[in-house]
Amino acid sequence: MLIHGEKTSLRPVDANDQELMMHWENNPEFWEVSEHDGPLSVDMIRDFIRNSEDLKLNGQLRLIIQNEAQEAIGALDLFDYDGYLKSAGLGILIAEKTNRNRGYAKDALKAVLEYQKAKREILLIRSLIHTNNAASISLFTAAGFKKTGIKYFKGKEAVQFIYEL
Question: Which of 75, 86, 119, 152 has the most crowded Cβ, counting Cβ within 10 A?
Answer without folding.
Answer: 75
